[in-house]
Amino acid sequence: MGELRLMKGNEALAEASIRAGMDAYFGYPITPQSEVLEYLTREAYQRTGATILQAESEVASINMLYGAGGAGGRVMTSSSSPGISLMQEGISYIAGSQIPCLIVNVNRGGPGLGTIQPSQGDYFQSVKGGGHGDYRLIVLAPATVQEMADFVLDGFLLAEKYRNPVLILTDGALGQMMEKVELRDQVDRSVRPVPAWATVGKPDSRPANVLTSLFIQPEEMEQVNIALQKKYAEIEAAEVKYQTVHMEDADMVLVAYGLSARISRKAMELCRANGMKVGLIRPITLWPYPYQVIRDAAKQAKGFLTVEMNAGQMVEDVRLAVNGQRPVEHYGRMGGIIPTPEEIVSVLERMYASAS
Amino acid sequence: MQELDIIDEHEGLSLVCEKPDTLKDARMHYCPGCGHGVAHRIIMEAVAELGIQEKTIGVAPVGCSVFAYHYMNIDMQEAAHGRATAVATGIKRVLPDQYVFTYQGDGDLAAIGTAETIHTVNRGENIMIVFINNAIYGMTGGQMAPTTLFGQKTSTSPYGRAQEFNGYPLRITEMLAMLPGAFYVTRQAVNTPGNVRKAKKAILNGFKYQELKKGTSFIEIVSNCPTNWGLTPVKSNEWLVENMLPAYPLGDIKLPSKEDLIHA
């Protein structure tokens, strides 16, 4: 068993990044994730020699990440919604140049400067693009402080396996809440081999390595896109992750991720105590999305309800999976308000009433 | 890229000058008379002479020189517009003992990338920044740059740059020299053989100073753009001498002291 600690989500994530053997972190202060940068500047260099740099902006952070990841480093940045918006150009370049890295969005309410309270309003931005062009991020959605820690090394390994940026999409509540967390052992930074594609200096034995997303001939650019899409198809086939609870007999299905999934689980328990057979599907990877388990559930369930801290974003993916076979509704709160289990129960009661 | 036929031997002739193997066998896409080709060559000659090909990483951002990696036979990263020094910072922080340089135009370095430029130099990142100033946006077809001169006509200052509409030509090199992180700041040109030799010496310094880990080397190269200036190569170099050099005078702006040049 690893070391047990009581930690804030942001601090657990930062601690996990040190233990994951991260080489460099670049970030800019923004609430509600500044603890990540604070924790790392306090702890990382002293323990592992990792570079921790406070950049002049999120624009600089993401481009430093591009350079450092391209030089073969295991690298991370974190921010919250407005800062992640600033990074979108760089994220598109990173995806196009196929540079592995980890990006963390501690989602707060928007649009605009919005609020510092938790939100899931960045779902579309995270899973449908965000920046320009046809690209995908692997998106992981933790629901506990334990997963805030665990998904860091998992994310680095996925990024390196596919040469693709990975996004941890979490929110201000998970970033700020304290829970027990079991930490993994320290990964030795020095043992990771230099990737063959990295720009580290060209020896006589190989041609120069070039990292670019620029292919000005359309025929060549199309081939690059086809190769990217092939990679994305491989990720979709191999890396979908989700959790199901009480789906064996569920006739009404809650679909929720992250903090909303925890609240939905409580709502499900309240319903079950009253004889309503409610189940829960919690997507852990938001891309690739677990369409199949939802499609399968549609064979027996009477209806689906997504619970999100937004105006209804993931509900579109649930509707794609259900494909009109069953009613799919959305319940959400916006602007930093967290839905309560009782609110969700009352929506489910109404859905039961209209289904019978 | 089209391969060139390289003539290895000619009877009775001896080789006095050759292309360094730090340049690829590719035909450059630059317009006739453009300074980029010379600037590329002196940087790659410096890499060859210092024997640091295995330890050098270049960064080429958006601009005419975005394809520099087609010509420079070293590991390179292409960067987003304006972000070259941030990318170079990332590389250097992960590989502190390698030689890292950026190669940026005036729009990239002094307009869209101003924040990254200033903060990179202010941190004293141990990199070399090569700044090609030809007072115009070349790749996009001749728009006004931050360094465009008063009265200079471009496609977006068709009546000539005027202070009341467009502000002042930006002398960013002098500005950066004020920052304590700037270790070596100089302005050079590649319009004459003599100036090319001086510029190459500055580039050699910019590489060698990285070994000291004492700050940023910043080398401006005043260059031309015959196509977008609407001049022949010869006339463009005359225009450069008559107009560019009075606004952007050549010479060293900040030199390391003797103590600065001692290894820490």
Briefly, what CATH class of chain B? Alpha Beta
Enumerate the strands of the largest sheet of chain A in spatial order, edge to edge or round the barrel.
3-2-4-5-7-6-13
Give the % helix of chain A: 40-55%
Shape, per Cα inertia axes of chain B? globular
Distance between the termini of chain B: 44 Å
Class of secondary structure makeup of chain A: alpha/beta
Largest sheet of chain A: 7 strands, mixed
- CATH architecture assignment of the largest domain in chain A: 3-Layer(aba) Sandwich
Short description:
The complex is a heterodimer of chains A (356) and B (264). Chain A is built from 13 helices and 15 strands.
Helix-strand blueprint:
The complex is a heterodimer of chains A (356) and B (264).
Chain A (H helix, E strand, L loop, with lengths): L2 E6 H11 L4 E4 L6 H15 L2 E4 L3 H13 L4 E5 L1 H6 L1 H10 L3 E7 L15 H5 L10 E3 L4 H18 L2 E7 H5 L1 E6 L26 E2 L6 H21 L3 E4 L6 E4 L2 H16 L4 E6 L1 E3 L3 H7 L5 E6 L6 H8 L5 E5 L8 H15 L1
Parallel strand pairs in A: 2-3, 2-4, 4-5, 5-7, 6-7, 11-12, 11-14, 14-15
Antiparallel strand pairs in A: 1-8, 6-13, 10-12
Helix pairs in contact in A: 1-2, 1-7, 3-5, 10-13, 11-12
Chain B lengths: L35 H15 L5 E6 L13 E5 L4 H11 L4 E7 H7 L1 H10 L4 E6 L29 H4 L5 H6 L4 E8 L3 H16 L7 E7 L3 H4 L3 H15 L3 E4 L10
Structure description:
The complex is a heterodimer of chains A (356) and B (264). Chain A is α/β, with parallel strands linked by helices and 356 residues long. Chain A folds into two domains: 3-201 and 226-238, Thiamin diphosphate (ThDP)-binding fold, Pyr/PP domains (Rossmann fold); 242-355, Rossmann fold, CATH 3.40.50.920. Chain A has 13 helices and 15 strands. Chain A has helices at 9-19, 34-48, 58-70, 81-86, 88-97, 123-127, 145-162, 172-176, 218-238, 258-273, 291-297, 315-322, 341-355, and strands spanning 3-8, 24-27, 51-54, 75-79, 101-107, 138-140, 165-171, 178-183, 210-211, 242-245, 252-255, 278-283, 285-287, 303-308, 328-332. In chain A, the strands form three sheets. Chain A has a seven-stranded mixed β-sheet, with helices on both faces. In chain A, strands 10-12-11-14-15 form a five-stranded mixed β-sheet, with helices on both faces. In chain A, helix 1 (9-19) packs across helix 7 (145-162), helix 3 (58-70) packs parallel to helix 5 and helix 11 crosses helix 12. Chain B has 264 residues and is an alpha/beta fold. Chain B has nine helices and seven strands; from the N terminus they run H-E-E-H-E-H-H-E-H-H-E-H-E-H-H-E. Chain B has helices at residues 36-50, 84-94, 106-112, 114-123, 163-166, 172-177, 193-208, 226-229, 233-247; strands at residues 56-61, 75-79, 99-105, 128-133, 182-189, 216-222, 251-254. Chain B has a seven-stranded mixed β-sheet with strand order 2-1-3-4-6-5-7, sandwiched between helices. In chain B, helix 7 links the parallel strand 5 (182-189) and strand 6. The longest helix of chain B is centred in the last third of the chain and has 16 residues, at 193-208. Chain B is globular, with a radius of gyration of 18 Å. At the A-B interface, helix 3, helix 5 and strand 9 of A face strand 1, strand 2, helix 2 and helix 4 of B. Strand 9 (210-211) of chain A pairs parallel with strand 2 of chain B.
